[in-house]
Design goal:
The chain is elongated and about 110 Å long. The chain has 462 residues and is of the alpha+beta class. It contains 11 helices and 14 strands. The chain has 3 domains: 143 residues; 97 residues, Phosphorylase Kinase, domain 1, CATH 3.30.200; 189 residues, Transferase(Phosphotransferase) domain 1 (Transferase(Phosphotransferase), domain 1, Orthogonal Bundle).
């Protein structure tokens, strides 16, 4: 019967386990099959030692050997190996005590019992030590790899920021005449690095394309100036590259490359497949949906302000939804502490005005009227982080209530000399702490507005 059991069950199981170890697609079954094979092998050896040969020492030797195999030879975790060993270890101990007095002396009982027990504990300790060492090596490897990636990313980011300055200066010299630039089409290759896959969007001054990075096949977004460009457009574009490359944050679109091609100056950013927040206005008014999104926007603002960056054109169209992650983009008119801003003749819903024909750059004003703080009538160059908090407050009010806080943009009312109306009260469904901070964001008094960090903390608690 034992011979038949070995031939019919044990040998096929061992062969199948060996075959699975060489098939990557079946590797997930290797652990369970190894565990079953070890358990059955141990039970078979114990049964054979006691019932077939009548030699308890053979059972003890088999238990010692298979236990060591389970803990040190096969790639099993400590608890899994212990689960494989315990059944035949327990069977050996039970049969050994039953045989006591029937040919098994006290000394034999101790020896045949102690050997497997010592093998069990020594194997378990060895396995746990090996496992701990493997985890530590894996952790150290991950730390080193993360550090390498961080260093490489920081170097690349610094290179992008420096190159954007050089390229913008060179390109401005080449475009003093303001000549038109060619448009990209799918299939075009830029700098032997990127292949255009499709056009994602076009505006008055630029285009955004989905591109494939030839080196690794990764898909990215490429933004390029088109049409007739001038110095101001280039300054805005270079500023976006510098600021986007200046820091790494999960809620800010990362800039990974900048250069000049026949189609013009371009920058390459991570590709966000989701729509802008402006395309989700049908959900404005859903408080539970809005709060986590607002928390991430506030987190991005806190990071920007901590690095001396004021966005100056925060609006739903510049916030991209990437699954459960929100990303702020478009730093074209943002201010960076070491880069003086230039006035920009932008298109669409972005306002550019000069209150006096002889006004200097300090009085130049640009942004989107609905989201612009009223103090920016004095000029956007001196915009403070509080101006971003006003914009954030308008976005938060819209998302939490589904309506605008003011009947007309306050900045236009101030330009026209009209009295600014107080914002409508927020709904009671909004958490009280958030309601208070949003109302403070919309205060004409800049000193009353909270910081982005305060706003983020309150939203995280909501």
């Amino acid at each position: 019967a034992l011979t038949a059991w070995i031939a019919i069950v044990m040998l096929p199981l061992i062969i199948a386990t060996l075959l699975v170890s060489y098939r990557p697609k079946l590797r997930r079954w290797l652990g369970p099959m190894t565990t079953v094979a070890l358990t059955l092998a141990g039970l078979t050896c114990v049964a054979g030692g006691f019932w077939v040969m009548g030699r308890p020492e053979m059972s003890a030797a088999a238990v010692v050997m298979i236990t060591q195999f389970a803990f040190t030879i096969f790639p099993l975790r400590a608890l899994v190996a212990l689960g494989a060993v315990l059944p035949f270890f327990a069977m050996h101990e039970v049969l050994l005590f039953r045989a006591y007095g029937d040919g098994v002396t006290s000394i034999s009982l101790i020896l045949y019992s102690l050997g497997p027990l010592l093998s069990l504990f020594s194997g378990l300790l060895a396995n746990m030590s090996t496992e701990r060492g493997a985890r530590e090596r894996f952790r150290q490897g991950k730390i080193i790899e993360t550090q390498r990636r961080t260093i490489a990313r920081e170097r690349a980011r610094a290179d992008v920021a420096e190159r954007s300055r050089e390229l913008s200066e060179a390109l401005m010299r080449l475009t003093e005449s303001g000549g038109p630039l060619a448009r990209l089409v799918p299939g075009d290759v830029i700098d032997d690095k990127f292949r255009v896959v499709k056009t994602l969007g076009r505006g008055g001054m630029g285009e955004v394309h989905e591109v494939e990075q030839l080196a690794d096949g990764k898909h990215l977004a490429l933004k390029v100036l088109t049409g007739t460009i001038d110095r101001e457009a280039l300054m805005r574009f270079a500023r976006e590259a510098r600021i986007g490359a200046s820091f790494d944050h999960p809620n800010v679109v990362e800039v990974v490359e900048v250069g000049v091609a026949p189609a013009g100056m371009y920058l390459v950013m991570e590709l966000v497949n989701g729509p802008p927040l402006a395309a989700r206005r049908e959900r404005f008014g859903e408080v539970a949906w809005a709060l986590p999104i607002l928390a991430q926007i506030a987190e991005a603002l806190a990071s920007m302000h901590g690095r001396g960056i004021v966005h100056r054109d925060l609006k739903p169209a510049n916030i991209l939804l990437d699954g459960t992650t929100q990303k702020v983009t478009d730093f074209g008119i943002a201010s960076l502490s070491d880069l003086p801003p230039e006035p920009v003749d932008a298109r669409g819903d972005t306002l550019v005005t000069d209150r006096d024909p002889g006004l200097t750059q300090t009085g130049a004003m640009f942004g989107t009227p609905l989201y612009m703080a009223p103090e920016l009538t004095a000029g956007s160059r001196t915009a403070k982080p509080a101006a971003d908090l006003w914009s954030f407050g308008v976005i938060a009010y819209e998302m939490l209530t589904g309506s605008n806080p003011f009947p007309e943009p306050p900045i236009l009312a101030r330009l026209a000399g009209r009295t600014l109306e107080a914002p409508r009260a927020l709904d009671a469904a909004v958490p009280p702490e958030v309601r208070d901070l949003v109302e403070r964001c919309l205060s004409v008094d800049m000193a009353r507005r909270p910081s982005a960090q305060e706003m983020r903390d309150a939203l995280m608690r909501a």
